[in-house]
Structure of GntR family transcriptional regulator:
Amino acid sequence: MDYPAAWLQGASLGEKIACELRLQIIRGHYAPGTVLSENQIAADFGTSRSPVREAMKVLSGEGLIRLERMGAVVIGMTPADMEELFDVRLLIEHFVVKRLVHKDTAPIAAALERLTDKMEVAFKHWDIAEFSLQDFLFHEMLVLEAGHTRILHTWNGMRQLILTVMLAATEQRFSIKSNESLVTIAKHRTLAAALLDGDVKRLADLVDDHYRDTRNAVNDSVLSPFRGSAF
């Protein structure tokens, strides 16, 4: 499965290249230490080197590659990187659910339920890309509805990385442990329902529980290239 074309509408060529390379790096198809050649990537994508450079700057900013004179060296997602990504996401979601309980949560909960319905349909049709996207949009809606500009800015800075990690994890989950996807659906419904109650402690516990499961789900798919390495 390549990076979903439907997710690339309106993207520049550089952004499209970055999305495809990001996915291959996170999947481990480009192992840590692999040297990426601008010329080779340009040839693979049938383009000039300019959009490749644009893509590499983005990936470098995300810490996935290290730019060098003759190209770029793949770093990938180390265990420490992954822990930090989850730490930031967990901090954000703890903050936003506390903020959301002071709003009218009924329409938010209803919208979250609709996204979860779409996840369930995607699961029934074995649509990995759609399941990943709706899973991501569920969490993004919590951030958007919180109405906090700086939190949203932080989220947007990690958006593509989070989405791609979720896609890679969903691929792994569907191929090996598909029952975990049903657990995710159930936990999304529980979280949406808990918003209506306004119990901050319960919401925090549910977020913690959900992220424990998510960390486990991505371990095999994202961190496998680092097993037995020095990282």
Summary: The mean pLDDT is 90. The beta strands are 35-36, 65-68, 71-74. The chain has nine helices and three strands.
